[in-house]
Amino acid sequence: KLKIPLTLKVILTFTWKLYYINLKSNHYIPLLLYSPQNNVFCLFVLGLKEIRSAFDVYSICSEEKNEYLDNEFRLKDKQGYSRTSRDETDTWAYIAAEGDHDITEDSSDTRQQTMSLGMDMQLEWLSLEDFQKHLDGEDEEHSTKDVISSVQLRDAIKNGNYTMVKMALNSNEEYNLDQEDSSGMTLVMLAAAGGHDDILRLLIRKGAKVNCRQKNGTTALIHAAEKNNLTTAALLLEAGAHVNVQQKNGETALMKACKRGNYDIVRLMIENGADCNISSKHQSNALHFAKQCNNLSVSELLRNHLAMLTRVAEETIREYFEARLSLMEPIFDIACHLLCEGPDYSSEFTYKAPQNVPEGSGILLFIFHANFLANDVIARLCGPCSVQAVVLNDKFQLPVFLDSHFIYSFSPIQGLNKLFIRLAEAPTAKVKLLIAAYRVQLQ
Description:
InterPro entries: Ankyrin_rpt (IPR002110), Ankyrin_rpt-contain_sf (IPR036770), Dendritic_Spine_Reg/Scaffold (IPR050889)
ANK repeats: 183-215, 216-248, 249-281
Helix content: 25-40%
Keywords: ANK repeat, Repeat
Strand content: 15-25%
Structural class: alpha+beta
GO molecular function, one term: chromatin binding
Pfam families: Ank, Ank_2
Number of helices: 13
């Protein structure tokens, strides 16, 4: 009999697995709670005095299971709890720790090492190496005599059948992993829309492209954001998904997340270089959609991020010119472009000239090279530069310094202007470009 000082109560909407991480310790046992469908991990460290002799087989007695379930149902009835589909709500695990419970050994079957927590969970004895193999889809050898067709593979991905997908991809059969249906939906998009992270990881490891677009311009990342699949979006971004791609209606993955009011996905997008000021065909940006859903935390997050970018840009300009350049009004909202998303940047903006132009003032375009850190942004106007040319309304703009292409003279016209920037090709670059224009005056 063993008393564990921690009872995990897990309210969840999908199946979890509980793994014992085999680390050599006489005082602690790390337990990893893992959702294969959503790539969500929770790590617990249990302090035990007698691990070797006591921690062989656990099971919670049936009375405790029934008491646990009764308490949960009472809580749900009291709060008017109702569960909607996964597409309409965030999928989260709420974990509480309370009370000490006695755990008794079940000597009826010592070979089956499981821990029952009143739900479908299994405690499997797994090393870190074996766990990594599981993530890579190499933990089990599946074989089948029947050939899995492309249609069956597509259906398996849509239904989240991880075993069948792994059997197909590990077989000798050749598949077109970028196959599309009539709307342009690829296998990666199906996995992303369904939140099937294990399947998505297998597809990516086998070489499936993550930046394919449907006929309406939708990408796998947009599907993940629209379906509130946070870990799926993170997996796609890690695999090189383009964050600023627009649908035909001009909406981006960030706008979809703002429509949903999903704070975590919005934060993930902006940390990966999402442009908050991109406008849709109806001239609505991410902040507009956040206000529409009345989500104050998302709106504040976007405003704080834009304020930080503006502050960093202006401080970098003043530092570069040693405070000899006075910044007046901005010409357009600051923009962000990831160099890995392509060598061309284009945008449109409307310029309204002031009635009284200060004497000796002019307009400069600044193209910062920036890196986004945890809670900070570092920008520079010197060093290696990826900018090759700047074209405004079909006219080349001249760099202020011949040996540096970070700063350009800028001559917008009254009304609508079209900006085009030619950049060096760097598909694997992590650098982000901040693009801003100001009316300035030498002091």
